[in-house]
């Protein structure tokens, strides 16, 4: 399959990146990050999550984040909503798009959102209805598509079944999440090929965590499968609180370097993202997770914790 001429990157750092940080991050810092990312040229930024603050305290205050960011016309500011309660809060906060999130593994579904896969899909139905009535598009996630921290291997057919349900209930795009980063390029190709039988490739996205160092290779494998939307996180921030040991998403900077190197257009300014990634890494007191940023001299100036 021919490589795409352009790729759309979904910057998930403010959500997937910050949800797993050990130290609390105040609203002002989140707003600053989103605003800096807006200036880099992203067309989609996942800026928060309307989940239970008891489950994910780091995402508390997402409503305030949405109230205070400076929006640029044409940029989608999205958020996770696990149920109608979350959707109503997201709508009140003025989100441009929401995302419901299911899993391909029963055990992970219960750990992450406290219900079975089929119950989660039933909870999403009223979200889809309310979103349609409000004119808000809905994205769908499937987690654990290439392995589960509790169940191990996951069959591609199981991923296809869940992705197909999300597509059928009206999700405009379904992002396949390698939550624990165990996938390898061959498995990634098989996965997308299998899921493409039920969800058109143009409506699929790749979401790769880099725990095993395979994420960039998996992005390339997905490109070869005709996928042209990827989720990534500035400075490789991220992880899932309910997938122990899961490290950050593939670093946005590294994906940009790969894509631009192959002549694939993104509309995003790599140098600007490197600067943002270095600044947020220093603020969080963590090493910069982007190889490209480190090659450009970032990452050796992490401020002390505290
Ligand atoms: P539950 O405890 O079963 O919910 O949690 P419940 O309906 O029984 O309600 C219990 C309490 O939660 C009530 O409050 C509700 O009001 C409150 P109380 O009466 O006890 O004071 N509540 C809420 N509060 C705020 N916002 C809401 C909400 N819903 C209920 N939306 C629930 C179920 C889904 C809420 C919970 O399990 C939850 O919030 N889970 C979120 C987990 C999460 O955010 N995980 C990380 C994101 S997923 C991810 O990272 C993977 C991804 O990146 C892709 C990949 O990498 O694979 C997307
Ligand atoms: Mg994730």
Brief write-up:
With 306 residues, the chain is α/β, with parallel strands linked by helices. It has 12 helices and 8 strands.
What ions, cofactors and ligands are bound?
3-hydroxy-3-methylglutaryl-coenzyme A, magnesium ion
Cross-sheet strand order for the largest sheet:
1-2-3-4-5-6-7-8
- Assign the CATH class: Alpha Beta
Run of helices and strands: EHHEHEHEHHEHEHEHEHHH
Shape: globular
Task: Give the structural class.
Answer: alpha/beta
Q: Summarize the main sheet.
A: 8 strands, parallel, barrel
CATH superfamily: Aldolase class I
Can you offer a commentary on this structure?
Strands 1-2-3-4-5-6-7-8 form an eight-stranded parallel barrel, surrounded by seven helices. It contains twelve helices and eight strands. It is globular and about 45 Å long. With 306 residues, it is α/β, with parallel strands linked by helices. It starts with 7 loop residues before the first strand and ends in an 11-residue tail after the last helix. Residues 302-306 have low confidence and may be disordered. The protein is 41% helix and 14% strand. It has a single domain (8-299), classed as Alpha-Beta Barrel (TIM Barrel). The protein has helices at residues 13-17, 27-40, 62-68, 84-93, 106-113, 117-134, 156-168, 185-195, 215-224, 252-261, 270-284, 291-295, and strands at residues 8-11, 44-49, 76-80, 97-103, 138-143, 173-178, 204-208, 229-232. Helix 8 links the parallel strand 6 (173-178) and strand 7. The structure holds 3-hydroxy-3-methylglutaryl-coenzyme A and magnesium ion (MG). The site of 3-hydroxy-3-methylglutaryl-coenzyme A (HMG) has 26 residues, from helix 4, helix 5 and strand 5.
């Amino acid at each position: 399959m021919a490589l795409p001429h352009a790729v759309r990157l979904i910057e998930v750092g403010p959500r997937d990146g910050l949800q797993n940080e050990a130290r609390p991050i105040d609203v002002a810092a989140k707003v600053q990050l989103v605003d800096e990312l807006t200036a880099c040229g992203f067309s989609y930024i996942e800026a928060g999550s309307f989940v239970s603050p008891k489950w994910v305290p780091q995402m508390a205050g997402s409503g305030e984040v949405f109230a205070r960011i400076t929006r640029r016309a044409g940029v989608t500011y999205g958020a996770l909503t696990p149920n109608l309660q979350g959707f109503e809060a997201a709508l009140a906060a003025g989100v441009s798009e929401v995302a419901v999130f299911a899993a391909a593994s029963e055990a992970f579904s219960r750990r992450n959102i406290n219900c079975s896969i089929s119950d989660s899909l039933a909870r999403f139905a009223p979200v889809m209805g309310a979103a349609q009535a409000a004119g808000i598009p809905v994205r769908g996630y499937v987690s654990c598509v290439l392995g589960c921290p509790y169940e191990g291997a996951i069959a591609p057919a199981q991923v296809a079944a869940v992705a197909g349900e999300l597509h059928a209930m009206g999700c405009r795009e379904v992002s396949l999440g390698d939550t624990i980063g165990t996938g390898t390029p061959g498995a990634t190709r098989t996965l997308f090929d299998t899921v493409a039988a039920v969800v058109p490739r143009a409506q699929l996205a790749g979401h790769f965590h880099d725990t095993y160092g395979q994420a960039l290779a998996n992005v390339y494998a997905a490109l070869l499968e005709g996928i042209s939307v990827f989720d990534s996180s500035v400075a490789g921030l991220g992880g899932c609180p309910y997938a122990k040991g899961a490290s950050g998403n593939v670093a946005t900077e590294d994906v940009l370097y790969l894509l631009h190197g192959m002549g694939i257009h993104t509309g995003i300014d790599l140098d600007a993202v490197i600067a943002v990634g270095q600044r947020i890494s220093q603020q969080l007191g963590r090493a910069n997770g982007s190889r490209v940023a480190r090659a450009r001299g970032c990452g050796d100036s992490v401020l002390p914790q505290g």
